[in-house]
Amino acid sequence: MGKRVAVVVGGSVAGLACAHAVAGAGWDAVVLEKAAAAAAGGGTGAGLGLDAQSMETLARWIPGWGLDAATLPLAVDLNRATDSETKAARTLARDEDFNFRAAHWGDLHRRLHDALPASVAVLWGHQFLSFEVSDGDGERGVVATARVLRTGETVQVTGDLLVAADGCMSSIRRRFLPDLKLRYAGYCAWRGVFDFTRKESSDTVAGIRRAYPELGRCLYFDLAYKTHAVLYELPRSRLNWLWYINGPEPELTGSSVTMEASDAMVARMRDEAERVWCPELARLVRETARPFVNVIYDADPLPRLSWVAGRVALVGDAAHPTTPHGLRSTNMSVADARALGGCLARLEDSEPTPARALAEYEAARLPVAAAQVLHARRLGRLKQGLPVDGETEGFDARTATAEEALQLRQRSMPFFGGAPTADDHGGL
Question: How much is the average pLDDT of 270-292?
Answer without folding.
Answer: 97
